[in-house]
Design goal:
- The protein has 5 helices and 5 strands.
- By secondary structure, it is α/β, with parallel strands linked by helices.
- The chain has one domain: 3-Layer(aba) Sandwich (Rossmann fold).
- Strands 2-1-3-4-5 form a 5-stranded parallel beta sheet, sandwiched between helices.
- Helix 1 links the parallel strand 1 and strand 2.
- Helix 2 packs parallel to helix 3.
- The longest helix has 17 residues.
C-alpha cells in the first residue's frame, strides 16, 4: 500500500525536513505552502496523515483544520507549531466542537516525525 502524507506549512525548511524524514521511511510525501493549497490537494488525493502548521498567512492552521474536517473527519491531523500558547483558546474551542486533532510542539526531530507517523499509520491500518 502506498501511504500518502500531506505536510502543510508555510516554512520551506519545515516542509523539506518532513519530506526527507518520511521519504527515507518509504512514505509518499506531498507538501503545501498554505492552507488554501493544502485544502485543494486534500480534495484531490486521499491522505493517510496530515501535518499542519498553525501560524500561516492566509488561512491559519485552525481555519484550515476546520475546513479539512468538513471534508474528511477520519484522516489523522497533527498540528505542528511553536505558537501553541498563542492559539490555545482557539484549539480548545475546536476540540470542544468535536474537531479531532493532536498537537506537536516545534522543534520536532526526524526520529519523532518518523515514530509518530509509524504509530499513526499502524494504528489506522489496523482499524481496516
Amino acid at each position: 500500500m502506498n501511504i500518502k502524507i500531506l505536510v502543510i506549512d508555510d516554512d520551506q525548511i519545515i516542509r523539506k525536513a518532513f519530506t526527507l524524514a518520511l521519504k527515507e521511511s518509504g512514505y509518499e510525501v506531498h507538501t503545501a505552502e498554505s492552507g488554501e493549497k493544502g485544502l485543494d490537494m486534500e480534495s484531490k488525493t486521499h491522505y493517510h496523515l496530515i501535518f499542519l502548521d498553525l501560524n500561516m498567512p492566509g488561512l491559519n492552521g485552525i481555519e484550515t483544520l476546520k475546513e479539512l474536517r468538513k471534508k474528511n473527519k477520519l484522516v489523522p491531523v497533527y498540528i505542528i507549531t511553536s505558537f501553541h500558547e498563542e492559539y490555545i483558546k482557539e484549539l480548545s474551542k475546536a476540540s470542544m466542537q468535536g474537531i479531532d486533532f493532536d498537537v506537536l510542539k516545534k522543534p520536532i526531530g526526524k526520529e519523532e516525525i518518523v515514530s509518530i507517523t509509524n504509530a499513526v499509520i499502524n494504528s489506522t491500518l489496523s482499524e481496516f
